[in-house]
Amino acid sequence: MGIALSALGLLLASAACCLSLAVALRVKKLLDPLTEEGLLSGRRVEGPAPGTPVPRPGTLVGVDGTAVELPADGSGPWVLTFQAVGCSGCKEQLPAYKKFLRNMALDRGRVFSVVVGDKDGVSLYDEELRPYAHVVHGADNALRLVEELGVSMFPTYLVVDGNGRVLASPQSSARLAEIGAGLLTPAPVGA
User: CA–CA separation, 13 vs 150, rounded Å?
Assistant: First the structure.
């Protein structure tokens, strides 16, 4: 009887070991994209490098249906951000981003937020940011802008100079507040 119980115990231990290995391999498969290429890799995923020209994708369409043009050369520094509907970090940083825009007193014509995802989800960003920014659904020309700039992490905040070149590309609203305050100067409303 003792041998049978030992054999049964060994069989159960082997099965538990196999199950643990299967779970570990599945977890590794799920985490590999994060650990080898992304957030947990120790490598920082950067936004567009300083000096990168912002493409001119043509007319963008704001969530409210109006035509939106990025500032022309010589206009002074401006802000271009990229958020995603399913991005929890984007939503968490939204209050700090709004506070930055409010404190900087930037004219709405100098702030553009491209939001990638389903149109229904974009409405949250439109409601929150409309007083401070032109909110554009990340489709058509706006999606081309995301692709051509190589934005692969959300949120990404760009400070762009008056000649359409990236000055800075932080990926947190706190870092934007640190960097942006020195790069942007408030302009009178309506300027």
Answer: 49
Instruction: Answer whether 107's CB lies under 8 Å from 78's CB.
Output: no
- Over residues 139-180, the pLDDT tens digits come to 887 888 889 999 989 999 999 998 999 999 998 998 999 888
pLDDT in tens, 29-48: 444 444 444 445 454 556 89
> How many CA atoms within 13 Å lie on the side-chain side of 104?
27
Q: What is the pTM of this model?
A: 0.73
- The per-residue DSSP string of 108-177 comes to GGGEEEEEES-HHHHHHHHHHHTTTSEEEESSHHHHHHHHHHT--SSSEEEEE-TTSBEEE--SSHHHHH
34 vs 38: CA distance, rounded Å: 4
Spatial distance between the Cα atoms of 123 and 178, rounded to a whole number of angstroms: 28
